[in-house]
Structure formats: C-alpha cells, structure tokens
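2.7 Reproducibility. Because tokenized structures are sensitive to small changes in the input, we list the exact sequence used for RidA family protein, including any N-terminal residues retained from the expression construct. No trimming or masking was applied before prediction.
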Amino acid sequence: MQGERIFSGSPYEEKAGYARAAVAGGWIFVSGTTGFDAQTKEFPADVEAQCENCFRNIEIALERAGATLKDLVRVQIFVTSQEEFERIIPIIRKHCYEARPANTTVFAQLVAPHMRVEVEAIAVAPSGK
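Resulting structure tokens (single pass, no recycling of outputs):
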C-alpha cells in the first residue's frame, strides 16, 4: 500500500473496505463524507446540520493528515434536490470560501433515505507527505 490511510471509525469503512482519506503523491483524497454525527451516532434531520457535519468530518480527516480546509483544491457535493442545495449554499461558502476549491454539485439519490448531502474532497498534502 502506498501512502497513508486515515480512518474515522465508521463501520462502513471496515464493511466496504475503504479509508476515510488517503494521502499519496502530495494529495489528500477524502472519501464521500455524509452528515453523520459521530458524537450522537445519528444523522440530523435537516440538510443544513448534515452539511455542517460533512465539513466537520472532512476537517477532522484533513487534520489527521496535517492539513486544513484551507488546503482544499476540489469538492464534489451530492445533494438530493435543488431546494436542499439552495439551503446549504451558505454552509458551503462558510467552509470553502477561503480555499476557493473547484466544485461540482450533483443532484442524486444517496444510499439511504435519511442521508441528504454527501461531500467528497481533495486537498494538497503538507510538504513531505
């Protein structure tokens, strides 16, 4: 295995055989991250809280790799509808504005009905990683 793997403890990482993030070749690739709240072990009902959790979980993975949200270069956002996208725009801006990553947003049905948003990210790794 090349590079470093970062795990969040999500049962799906073990079940499906993936890492929360992979550090390789000067990049940090963060898997699609949902709005799961690791402390309550639940998904909030509203899309805004789920989106906040997505970015919080991404930030934790990046910190474990020695990076921050300021190091983001690309995000891909999957959201269930145009209406929900409009509701999370301020949250995306809050977490991405400083880095100004490239962004693709896709309307999609997610893997479970209670999931309303999922964010995938790529960041520049700190020097030497």
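The helical segments are 11-16, 47-64, 82-96.
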